[in-house]
Amino acid sequence: MILFVIVSNVIIGFTQEYKSEQTMASLRKLSSPMAKVIRNGSLREIQTNQVVPGDILIIEQGDVVSADIRLFEAVNLRIDEALLTGESEPVEKV
């Protein structure tokens, strides 16, 4: 009986540790968002802290923009500004 309790405890502990490692890996991936930019005529995916003036950002649905940008072209663009303005609905941009 004691052996059964020890083995089950090891299995449960391993499972919980594995799940927490998976969760931490997902959080690390979210904490360093990537940006798609056109730099020197080629499309690259870089970390957002490496975006410099002159880069052209390619923004798709669901992307998080972590820089001030100037829009060249936008079709049906709506921005969720809840963190900045507290508005509950996305704001349409022209």
Overview of this structure, please?
The chain has helices at 2-31, 82-85; strands at residues 34-39, 42-47, 56-58, 78-79, 91-92. It is α+β, with helices and mostly antiparallel strands. The protein folds into 2 domains: 1-31; 33-94, Calcium-transporting ATPase, cytoplasmic transduction domain A. The strands form 2 sheets. It has a 3-stranded antiparallel sheet with strand order 2-1-3, with no helix packed on it. The longest helix has 30 residues, at 2-31. It is elongated and about 70 Å long. 2% of the residues are buried. The mean pLDDT is 87.
Q: What distance separates the N and C termini?
A: 70 Å
**Residues in helix, %:** 25-40%
Provide the CATH topology of the largest domain. Calcium-transporting ATPase, cytoplasmic transduction domain A
Low-confidence stretches: none
- How are the strands of the largest sheet arranged? 2-1-3
Quaternary class: single chain
Class computed from helices, strands and strand pairing: alpha+beta
Describe the global form: elongated
Q: What's the CATH architecture name of the largest domain? A: Distorted Sandwich
Q: Report the top-level CATH class of the largest domain.
A: Mainly Beta
Which homologous superfamily in CATH is the superfamily of the largest domain?
Calcium-transporting ATPase, cytoplasmic transduction domain A
Give the radius of gyration: 22 Å
Overall pLDDT confidence: 87
Into which percentage range does the β-strand content fall? 15-25%
Number of strands: 5
Q: Name the helix and strand elements from N-terminus to C-terminus, one letter apiece.
A: HEEEEHE
| Individual helix count | 2
